[in-house]
Amino acid sequence: MACILAEFDCGHKGAVLDTQLDDLCLRLATASSDGLVKLWKVDKPEEPTFICDLAAHSGAVHQVSWAPAGTGAGSLLVSVGADGRVFLWGPCHDMQRWQVVHEEDLSRHGEVTAVSWAPPTMGTAAYACALSDGTISVTIHQGTLRSGDTGVEHRWQSENFAVHKGKANAVSWSSAVDPHKKGEVVGACLATAGEDGVRVWHILEVHGRFREEELPRPGPEEPIRDVAWKPWDGLGDVLAFAQGKQVGFLRRESDGPGWSLDSPVKLDEDVWKLEWQPMGSQLVVTCGEKEYRSLLLKQQLCGKWDVIDVSGTTA
Asked: 1-168 in CATH: which number?
């Protein structure tokens, strides 16, 4: 049963567009249409403590994402926004102050609509951004370089891939990684959501070559708002996607010939965001019209999905 631990006013002057907890549930980042990212200490959820504002974007901040702890970059936060900029933030010696450690200007591709970190199983820090012209940008940590007597400079390399004919709305990584290629982005799998559907891509080369997998096309022809790759369980791949007022599922068994389309879970409101829980059988769904609310989809052993709201009542 899900329950609300705390509610508080995060002090933004515009709509809150995204909220993200770090892996240890110690810090919360909130992103807003006011152009600010706010950081909070939430190790005691009933007593959240404001840390600082991150003010670098010149427009709405669409999404924020903490680096997974297993990559060694767990203290880093990436933010993306309507200004086409990507900022990677890290703490200063004074943990009340944060600084930009890497930035990218992708405004030639329009707005940056979403961002997703590669899973820690890849063995290196990498993230992917979705852009409003249908492009995906993949940024990989290339290592460190000594700067001066005591400084260390981190090197990042970015490559762009055209993957959708219209707007790209979301991107999600597969957590299944070839053990012989751990530490490399080559061989990784990405799922993307756009105005023209869901796509699955294999990265064949760092410098610009992808291979697309063949997928059954979900109907009706509505834009896909979000896509989320289920954590690898050794049995197969599952992709959840948000389309209109339903959550759809694409499935591929580990020994099967290809992807198949499962029956969707139909809801009463538009679906906007999806997030798998670590155990894999539960999916958090953000939906709503004028106000957002969160639902928990929990899969039974028979395959049926129960829909539960945050107060624990069945929807």
From this structure: 2.130.10.10
